Amino acid sequence: MGKALIIGCGGVASVVIHKCCQNSEVFEEIMIASRTKSKCDALKEKLKGGKTIISTAQVDAGSVPELVALMKDFKPGICINVALPYQDLTIMEACLECKVDYVDTANYEPLDTAKFEYKWQWDYRERFEKAGITALLGSGFDPGVTGVFCAYAQKHYFDEIHYIDILDCNAGDHGYAFATNFNPEINIREVTAKGAYIENGEWVETEPMEIKRVYNFPEIGEKDMYLLHHEELESLALNIKGVKRIRFFMTFGQSYLNHLKCLENVGMTSIKPIMFEGREIVPLQFLKAVLPDPASLGPRTKGKTNIGCIVQGVKDNKPVSYYVYNVCVHEECYAEVGSQAISYTTGVPAMLGAMMVMTGKWKKPGVFNIEEFDPDPFMEALNAWGLPWKETFAPELVD
Ligand SMILES: NC(=O)c1ccc[n+]([C@@H]2O[C@H](COP(=O)([O-])OP(=O)(O)OC[C@H]3O[C@@H](n4cnc5c(N)ncnc54)[C@H](OP(=O)(O)O)[C@@H]3O)[C@@H](O)[C@H]2O)c1
Q: Which of 32, 35, 109, 146 to mutate to test the pocket of ligand 1 (most atoms within 8 A of CB)?
């Protein structure tokens, strides 16, 4: 069917690339382009022999001219951005110049400020519309599948949605005292920031990890979870009409939290540059360099993840509570694609989002969040491509 340019070759990208190669009818040809070309070449070598034609390239995704040159040469129909959130805008600029559709999994963040919001990418709406190309924002798991879950609930089970709780549980154990499951810099910026949720159209801010709940996750059991600020809250508040409150909770073990607190107390999580032996370094980037590479956690991680949404509202004037979730097993992901479940649960939806646009199911000019599209074909594809979901109308609620 078409050609996809995949930018980045880290943990998530590796899953996207494996899944594109499993889906060679849609992804006839892919180019893996990233900062370190040797990683792209190693993956190409590992996947050789399949039907999808793979090429590789070195690119600095922060440079629009480099990206444009690459796109003009390869002529992709779509670009899947699985590099880092800092590169979203340069990649979107290049897509505009070359009229290439765009998919990502995380919203733009400036490198020097730990702040994420959709404004920067939503500002591209008119230009994408005029160019006749599609940008699909946030096609990972959360954001991503969680938005599709909410759109599906809205479409099939509710007249009005009042409350949404997104619950992200990782009960996997990698055996390290401290490691992050995806890019450590992005992960630590996210969890050390203040918490926030939306109530009656307003943001309510909390101290980091201030709100804790214990939840009995299906197929996992009881875990401590903490309220975090998360990017899909912003778009869901606009796209799920009438919603009164949206919260996001993530589980963390005590060892992770103790280490993080200690690292924070000594200044290792700071993004303010400091001088070290005559050169400027950013403590958080140095920390990233000494932590285990998330891509290396695959063979060590055992256990399950459970990510889903509890939605409350009314249908035919009767109250409805609905919980839709996916359970993913770290070891099974590793056996299939050589990655742990965090990369898997992000990479599969990124491939599926690109497939939705390439097959025309989600092709429309403009910049869109995932919940703005018809959820049904994506929900079907989740079942077919490795992330089956379950639903219940009698969930335990979060107070
Ligand atoms: N929505 C979700 O559910 C979800 C969940 C997890 C992660 N994510 C997002 O997924 C993305 C990838 O995460 P990850 O864990 O795969 O990160 P990662 O392992 O650190 O991979 C990032 C990749 O991007 C490459 N890269 C970085 N800067 C670049 C540049 N200027 N030019 C070209 N390539 C560059 C890196 O190159 P090197 O190999 O040279 O370092 C690396 O290959 C992040 O944006 C993250 O926020 C989303």
A: 35
